[in-house]
Automatic annotation (TrEMBL):
Transmembrane residue ranges: 78-101, 121-141
Protein name as it appears in the record: Transmembrane protein
Organism: Paraburkholderia hiiakae
Domain of life, source organism: Bacteria
Keywords annotated in UniProt: Membrane, Transmembrane, Transmembrane helix
Region span, Disordered: 1-27
């Protein structure tokens, strides 16, 4: 059995129709995996940008926010955004582990190959992402629900 360049011996040429169909299916799987990886990466980036941007925005406008929101609620909101950012980073880390396991440890030539082995790690990544989004929403609601008229404006009237 002669191996083609960049392939395993098990991929030796077969009938042309069968190999063309197999190649198309393999290419489709690879392209789908690339698209899903890109989508997941963009979602993780968006989650981290939301949390980091919200925390940075609150810190940048702290002097203006102090009159409109009590300081304990500002601190709580910033803390929630930071926790959300850490959860987003955890989601990215576990997402990377899923990719590493999928690409390097689960070789098709391995007789113990089980494509479902990385499912738990993937679920942990999704749980981290959902938790990060929860903390962002909770921090934003905490700040929004505790807005009040600045004391200086109330005293002028």
């Amino acid at each position: 059995m002669v191996a083609r360049h960049g392939s395993y011996p098990r991929d030796a040429p077969r009938d042309t129709e069968e190999s063309a169909t197999g190649d198309e299916e393999s290419n489709r799987r690879i392209e789908t995996l690339k698209a899903l990886n890109t989508l997941a990466l963009e979602l993780f980036k968006a989650l981290n940008i939301l949390n980091a941007g919200a925390a940075a925005g609150m810190l940048a406008g702290l002097d203006k926010l102090q009159g409109a929101i009590d300081s304990c609620h500002i601190r709580r909101s910033i803390l929630l955004f930071v926790i959300g950012l850490v959860c987003g980073l955890g989601a990215m880390l576990f997402g990377w582990i899923v990719l590493y396991v999928r690409l390097h440890l689960m070789d098709d030539t391995n007789p113990d190959h089980d494509p479902k082995k990385h499912k738990r790690t993937m679920l942990v990544s999704v749980a981290f992402a959902a938790t990060g989004l929860f903390f962002f929403c909770y921090g934003a609601l905490n700040a929004a629900m505790n807005l009040h008229e600045p004391k200086a404006t109330c005293q002028k009237q």
